[in-house]
Amino acid sequence: MTKGGKPSQRPFIIPIFVPHMGCPHQCVFCNQTSITGSNANMSPGSITERIHDQLSAQRGKPIRREVAFYGGSFTGIEKKVQMQLLSAVQPFIRKGFIHTVRVSTRPDYIDPQTLELLKGYGVKTVELGVQSMVEEVLRCSKRGHTADDVLKAAELLHDGGFEVGIQIMVGLPWDDAHRYAHTVDRVIGLDPHFVRIYPTLVLKGTLLEKWYRSGGYTPLSVKEAVDLCKGAFLKFYRAGIPVIRLGLQSSPELETQDCVVAGPYHPAFGHLVESSLFYDMASFLIGRSGQYRILRARISPSDLSNIRGQRNRNLDQLKRRFGLRDIQIEVDEKQPKGSLILINGTKLDGMSYRTLPFS
Ligand code: SF4
Predict the structure, then answer these.
(1) DSSP H helical segments within 58-169, as ranges?
(2) Distance 85 CA to ligand 1 centre (A)
(3) pLDDT tens-digit profile of 85-132?
(4) Topology of domain 275-352, CATH
(5) Is any ligand 1 atom within 6 A of the Cβ of residue 72?
(6) How many CB atoms lie within 10 A of CB 119?
(7) 25 lines ligand 1 (CB under 6 A)
(8) Where are the domains of the chain?
(9) pTM (two decimals)
(10) Strand pairing partners for 17?
(11) Which end of the chain is more exposed for a tag (fewer CB within 10 A), N or C?
(12) Tens of pLDDT along 202-225?
């Protein structure tokens, strides 16, 4: 991943989940088993097997291949076990089958010795579960670390030459739009290489579920979460920081096992955010165009579903709102992603994620 909003060629990622291994904490929203669908501890043998399976299933031309230890707090695991897990990847690195390793962990589990160890085993990327940069929100969520821990960890990672990823959450207890905006601004100040944004869900078996059932916590609606994420997405975009994930990856566990008790879960949450941004851009452009009944919208091929919206909802709403007979879509390979040109008769007008006004 490069800075400047331009993702490098996406690596082929082999995910390995280490749920709750090494984590003595119990954040109010966390039930790693529900999210990853796994509570099995990974052994070096099972890691070797998994990498073999995934490599043989990989199709297409060879690209950068990465093993990613997700979930839990990797650097909080006993050192001996960290080394065993990372050792399982080394034969693949030596043979050139795997190029890099990434781990996710807590900000307070980063120190110079830990980073030396990671470096020695080919770890290039460290993702920090930051969630918020507001002390009261961190306290209410029982995170067990401070915003200052995040600053120190990010500095050590940058100094050590690591690629830094930051995960934040929207809708945490005690959070609001103002505090969330503060978190986004402070995360931009950390200069990460990428971020992930997750809406807070009430998962079964968590303390948040108890609070929700007793009326002590009200989750965001999908619309509220989308609106907050739109603002965050635009700020990160304009700061040249790619948002590589918006919303939890959908999984059979999330879809079918009643594990989401409440909250803004949507299997295509990221698409909701981007299609809402396209709706806003189109509204602005149509609003300032003349009185034509048929308009043409030119977009990048990768934004086709964003301009249409879920089940063509954007186009239907725009037609109704502005009394249009039709909006014709033109796909142009040369059009940058995240931008829209509206053609009204012979007049052209354009807008992009960089220029869309937002408050
Ligand atoms: S630190 Fe991470 S793994 Fe541990 S309880 Fe919190 S969210 Fe879950």
Answers:
(1) 79-87, 90-94, 112-120, 135-140, 147-159
(2) 19
(3) 999 999 999 999 999 999 999 999 999 999 999 999 999 999 999 999
(4) Glutaredoxin (3.40.30)
(5) yes
(6) 13
(7) yes
(8) 12-267, 275-352
(9) 0.91
(10) 70
(11) C
(12) 999 999 999 999 999 999 999 999
